[in-house]
Amino acid sequence: MYRAARGTTDILPEEQVYWRYIEQKAASLAQLYGYERIDTPVFEETGLFTRSVGENTDIVQKEMYTFEDRGGNSLTLRPEGTAPVCRAYLEHGMNNLPQPVKRYYLASIFRYERPQAGRYRQHHQFGCEAIGDADPALDAEVIDLAWQFFQSLGLQRLTLNLNSIGCKQCRPKYLAVLKDYYASNLATLCADCKTRVERNPLRLLDCKQATCQQVADAAPRSVDHLCPECAEHFRRLQGYLNLLGLPFVINHRLVRGLDYYPHTVFEIQPEAEGAQSTIGGGGRYDDLIEELGGKPTPAIGFATGIERIVLNLKRENVPIPPLPRPQVFVAHIGEAARGEAIKLSASLRRNGGGVIEGMGDRSLKAQLRQANSLGVRYTVIIGEDELKAGAVVLRDMTTAQQKTVPISKLPAELGS
């Protein structure tokens, strides 16, 4: 028997209520902030990700799904959402639009990771990107959008973590200090971190191994090594967040996992779960557009995993409104009534009513049992007597009461 590939999952009808709830909240809130939807291809040229995400990141080194097509081109399934949006920004001349350009997406993301609760090799993200403005007020707006999104879903016990990791001018000096510190602690580091000291030192602060976390807790802090411009940006951002009433904590170990972040980085976490259960995060990527061949263009964005949100909605027992379902079942008795049942079902649907039609040669008792299991409000019954009278029997499935109704008056009775 074939099964879903490891790290993937089927989203069954009983789970769809969560997904539609999240997607509808995402779209409506993004539009309130002026974001328009963009959908990019599920795969891109591999170079887009190695150049933007960074050749020394875990994503590029270990997690990308890369393949060669029949034309000899190296392509990669989308491992994150920001770089494709930036590619589209450049390709379609969005730099000529009023800035900042605001786009949101709902997209599948592919990473070869160890599957665990809320984390899959194919997962789904809601993300927002604001490209073309360096104002720290835009940072505050994006963080506010992310925070309000989770609040609108009904998630309450959350923590907003904030940090600044500097820019191209001040970060090299900080990295030198950081590497010196870690060089004196090599013996206590895990195997991955020993390679990160030279290859990707910022990720040392993000390691989840217990011994490495102890070392990271005492590591030099990036905010103590910011240039005046970065320090002022970070100071103003904190002031704006305070004006918005957003509670935040400075997390000196917060760096995010992609090379393109300078300045602001942030994450939103469930209070009781810790960094491994981060449900959303983002930051500035002011150098990315230039790295991809465009002019220097500041930008900021965030993304959140939908599977992780569903997990937290269930954990907090957040009530989810049900999806609309057909409330009418049309049952027929005998072959002669089947044609009228087909016509009536089609007529009700074309008037905007949801209808489930009884199929096959089941008895009326079996059809009523099916209607009851489907949770419909009404069952319409058509038999030989009803055919002759031009009427139907309308049964209220809640009260079990029923009455005869002329077919012409049925839509009014059903409220459709």
Account of the protein in words:
It is built from 15 helices and 16 strands. Helix 1 (about 15-30) packs antiparallel against helix 5 (about 135-155) and helix 5 (about 135-155) runs parallel beside helix 9. Strands 1-5-6-11-10-9-7-8 form an 8-stranded mixed β-sheet, with helices on both faces. Strands 13-12-14-15-16 form a 5-stranded mixed β-sheet, with helices on both faces. A 3-stranded antiparallel β-sheet has the order 2-4-3. It has helices at about 15-30, 45-50, 60-65, 80-90, 135-155, 170-185, 190-200, 210-215, 230-245, 290, 305-315, 335-350, 365-375, 385-390, 410-415; strands spanning about 35, 45, 65-70, 75, 100-110, 120-130, 160-165, 250, 265-270, 280-285, 300-305, 330, 355, 380, 390-395, 400-405. The relative contact order is 0.12. By secondary structure, it is α+β, with helices and mostly antiparallel strands. It has 2 domains: about 15-170 and about 225-315, Bira Bifunctional Protein, Domain 2 (BirA Bifunctional Protein, domain 2); about 330-415, Anticodon-binding domain (Rossmann fold), CATH 3.40.50.800.
